[in-house]
Amino acid sequence: MTNKLGVGIIGAGNISAAYLRLGPMFKGIELRAVADLNMDAANERAKEFGVRAETVDGLLASDDIDIVVNLTIPAAHFEVSKNVLLAGKHVYSEKPFVLTLEEGAELKALAEEKGLRVGSAPDTFMGGAHQRVRNIIDSGEVGKITSGTAFVMGHGMEHWHPNPDFFYQPGAGPVLDIGPYYVTNLVQLLGPVARVAALTSTPAPERLITSQPRNGEKIPVGTPTTIHALLEFESGAVITMVTSWDVWQHGHSNMELYGEEGTLHVPDPNFFGGEIKQTKREADVELSGEWEHPFSVPNDGDNANYRCAGLADMAIAIQEGRPHRCSDALALHAVEVMTSILAAGEKRGFVEMSTTCERPAPLTPDAARELLA
Ligand SMILES: NC(=O)c1ccc[n+]([C@@H]2O[C@H](COP(=O)([O-])OP(=O)(O)OC[C@H]3O[C@@H](n4cnc5c(N)ncnc54)[C@H](O)[C@@H]3O)[C@@H](O)[C@H]2O)c1
């Protein structure tokens, strides 16, 4: 039988609402408390979702909290996660896991020393669409993947997020903000990366906020906003990945993978669901409806949104003594890939990876059903 581990959140901002809303769908976790440096934000979220508000120190000292979910801004991820581990609790962080390889390695070592788990978003690769792509690749139907493309381009965050400042500072930018979804999915599909190269640019030194309540305010940009990267995987696959917040319109699909026997069009890794297209050499393949994965069923308007799947998987993995899918090793490797892309852009050359990781275990439809309450 799966017991529920007590979960507390640090960081009562924008994304905390999704965790508090979707958490009850899953086995193995019970969201109990929310904390923030800003007590008003914590109180408001706590009231909205019927959990208790805590100070950060109060949450870390709470006996009924086993796992702390770190939903603070990227620049605070390392310090907050470290304090959680020092308080003797497991930690699951929003992406990006940390901002440097050294920070990630320190957390991983601390967790190992204390016998605690560290997990990190994104968990969208556990979605039905991406798991089906994984299943097709692993079945050998499209042959070995030899190359591919990934495009994630738009015009930034200042038109919707109420406080978009952090997106334009080191630790964010499109590679570290939206790149985790793409890099993590590529690693689960193709395995670890061996080396990267990149060219980067910052076309606009300031961005104009058009969202409320700060409409009209200009914010500085401290990190590249257009990044063209090349990734060579240990498998030999070569991927072009373009991330930008300086593009109004484009006609590229999110992700295409080219195999020796066919092509896969992969939907946006920022989401759990989406349409897959497959070819057998040049001919379209009719994908059968047999793959009924619970994490591709729309539950949020037209979207399949199963955020907390990675958290629930970690909670259950702790109890079963098995590895969790959104692991620190995977997150650390993704951080190294992304920070190396930025470093490669600065030096205009190649950067070799020093970390590697196992592909996370596939999440079959039956395994996904096991995570649902
Ligand atoms: N907003 C989204 O749609 C979204 C989606 C996916 C992932 N994320 C990730 O989730 C994280 C949070 O994003 P957000 O949009 O909710 O940000 P946000 O700015 O809305 O909220 C962050 C909250 O963290 C609090 N905080 C900051 N530093 C803290 C500290 N040291 N201790 C305690 N509280 C602290 C802030 O007071 C704020 O309430 C980021 O890492 C982001 O990349 C956000």
Q: Can you summarize this structure?
A:
This is Gfo/Idh/MocA family oxidoreductase. GO terms for molecular function: nucleotide binding; oxidoreductase activity. The chain has 373 residues and is an alpha/beta fold.
Write structural notes for this entry.
It is a single chain. The protein is globular. It folds into two domains: 5-123 and 366-371, Rossmann fold (3-Layer(aba) Sandwich), CATH 3.40.50.720; 127-294 and 328-358, 2-Layer Sandwich (Dihydrodipicolinate Reductase, domain 2), CATH 3.30.360. By secondary structure, the protein is an alpha/beta fold. The chain is built from eleven helices and 17 strands. The model has no long low-confidence stretch (mean pLDDT 97). Bound molecules: nicotinamide-adenine-dinucleotide. Nicotinamide-adenine-dinucleotide is lined by residues 10-15, 36-38, 41, 56, 71-74, 76, 80, 94-95, 163, 177.
State the main characteristics:
11 helices; single chain; 373 residues; 31% helix; alpha/beta; Dihydrodipicolinate Reductase, domain 2; binds nicotinamide-adenine-dinucleotide; oxidoreductase; 2 domains; 17 strands; nine-stranded mixed sheet; Rossmann fold
